[in-house]
Amino acid sequence: MDTMRNLIKKAWRFILLFALILLSFSYAMFQGGFVSWFLFYSFLPFAIYCLALTMYSLKDFEVIRELPKTDYNAGESLKVSVVIKRRRAFPLFYLVMEDNIQDSLKYAQHDKRAKALIFPGFKKEISFEYQIEELPRGEHLFDSLTLKVGDPLGLFEKEKIYPAKDAIVVYPAFTEMIYRPLENQYDQGLTASRERVQRDTTMAVGVRDYQPGDRYSWINWKATAKRNEIMTKEFEQRQSHDVFVVMDCVPDKNFEKIVAFTASLLRAVLKKGAQSGLLTVSKERVSFPIRGGEQQLHQLFYHLAKIEAKSSTSLDRVIETDGLFVQQTVSFMLVTGQLTKTLIEKASFLGQRKGRMTIFLVKGQKEAAAAEERSLISTAKSRGVRVIIVHEGSFPAAFSEVNVR
Fold first, then answer.
1. Residue from 402, 354, 350 nearest 380 by CA
2. Mean pLDDT across the stretch 306-321?
3. 399 CB neighbour count, 10 Å cutoff
4. Highest mean pLDDT: which of 13-17, 256-260, 311-315?
5. pLDDT above 60 for 192
6. What are the φ/ψ torsions at residue 327 (nearest 5 degrees)?
7. What angle separates helix 2-31 from helix 33-55, to the nearest 10 degrees?
8. For the segment 241-292, what is each residue's pLDDT rounded down to a tens digit?
9. CA 19 to CA 247: how far, in whole Å?
10. Distance from C-alpha of 3 to C-alpha of 368, rounded to nearest angstrom
11. Helix 255-272 to helix 294-306 angle, to the nearest 10 degrees?
12. What gap in Å lies between CA 176 and CA 180, rounded to an integer?
């Protein structure tokens, strides 16, 4: 049906073009004089160009999109270059180029739109640049490029879509933080420990497979030669500083801030030398076991780049029903934008059985805690659950002396 409609439209334009040629010629023949013949001869080049354009093939074009890199952090800018090459120097009156990008990028700030009107003339190579400011977090796809050419009269237009698939990953923005492990001190609640996370390297209790981040001096050369694989010594830890982070993925106005703080927290923990895991329940449940090293950090950041606030399960239900909490005795850290009485009750029960429990309540830059939230924070403290309010722009204060006294 569409093919038939296009053929009818094209035929109608040909008829209209020939009618205009015939009309201008008839006017010149019957009217005579310089003006009438001048109009005819002035119109004739446009008509010839229209006919030539119908025979010109857009398959002659080669369209290339160039991206400086594929990995970005949220808030950075991206400069996209589009290069169009063709073999024949056919004169083009105009060329409309449009980069077909994902909707998530269409609403980002552009210094120029991803669509341009170019007057190439006889040029065989044409280039165009546009820049996207403040990239949003996520995995963004560039699907194809559309080129459209036409004649000055607007009678004939040609359009072709060129496949050009590219993708970029925009990792969540993070803030440099200094992580200080939180310790229990009986009646005094939780305090920040300045002790550096380390293993007692004077006492090796076994060997294990090498993991990224292990020191060169930890390699057990005898076991490595025996098994023909790199093996490292397993040391007795002075104190477990393993951290398991649970991020709330229910729809929330501060969700992007929650992701940014979670990324900053995980990075700070791993850079400190401790090990960390992550649990998110959005469209699906995803859990990362407790590990350390750069590879673990990259996996966590890649997951946080794509996570969406599409959970139908509240955080208190997650920690109540997920079997993962029963299996581990570590320091749990919950990151959320909503503090409820049920969440405090579940966190208190879990903390008494399995380990230290801290809730980070993420707020906007100048967003104050509501009266109900302040009351819930007092309740949580009496139940042995630490609640730390974290404001956007003040993430490093999460482990400062003020917040963790």
1. 350
2. 89
3. 20
4. 256-260
5. no
6. -85, -15
7. 160
8. 688 899 999 999 999 999 999 999 999 999 888 889 999 999 899 999 888 8
9. 69
10. 61
11. 180
12. 13
Q: Measuring CA to CA, which residue among 150, 154, 121, 147 is closest to residue 60?
A: 147
Q: Are 387 and 190 in contact (CB under 8 A)?
A: no
Tokens describing residue 377: 């924070």
Query: What CA–CA distance (Å, rounded) separates 315 from 337?
Result: 10
> Rounded CA gap, 256 and 253, in Å?
8
Query: What does the chain come to in residues?
Result: 405
CA distance 351 to 190: 12
Q: How far, in Å, CA of 330 to CA of 243, rounded? A: 6
With beta carbons less than 8 A apart as the criterion, state whether 335 and 315 touch: no
CB 92 within 8 A of CB 118: no
Burial of residue 226 (CB within 10 Å: 0-12, 13-18, 19+) is exposed
Q: What is the pLDDT of residue 3?
A: 67
How many Å apart are CA 147 and CA 153, to the nearest integer? 18
Please name every residue paired with 147 in a beta bridge, in sequence order, or none if there are none. Answer: 97, 160
Task: Delineate the domains of the chain, giving CATH numbers in brackets.
Answer: 2-48 (no CATH), 58-171 (2.60.40.150), 182-198+240-399 (3.40.50.410), 200-237 (no CATH)
R_g over Cα of the chain? 32
